[in-house]
Design brief:
Strand content: under 5%
Largest sheet: none
Order of helices and strands: HHH
Shape: elongated
Distance between the termini: 53 Å
Number of strands: 0
Length: 96
């Protein structure tokens, strides 16, 4: 179970590095925003699940898993809204 946590955490870091490369390489604001928010959601989700697996296998207690689950739910609910607001602002800025 500890190894599953480490594997998910490393996979999350790889996803976030690819997203950072996408933000660096893509040309317009909407493409950058898409790369950043979609990969951030996946990366943070993988990292949180990996830490939950690590916490379950170690003696951290159930409190850490509940905190990570709350963080994951909060981010999954708010990241799409933030992405939508940024996209609307970018479209509004480009139309002026």
């Amino acid at each position: 179970m500890i190894y599953l946590g480490w594997i998910l955490a490393v996979l999350a870091v790889v996803v976030l590095l690819i997203a950072a490369l996408g933000v660096y390489r893509l040309t317009d604001a909407l493409s950058r925003q898409h790369a950043a928010t979609k990969a951030a959601t996946l990366g943070i989700s993988l990292f949180s699940v990996g830490l939950m697996a690590y916490a379950a296998a170690s003696d951290w207690g159930a409190g850490w898993s509940l905190r990570l689950l709350a963080l994951l739910v909060f981010l999954v609910l708010t990241l799409p809204l933030a992405s939508h607001a940024l996209a609307r602002a970018a479209v509004h800025e480009s139309s002026d």
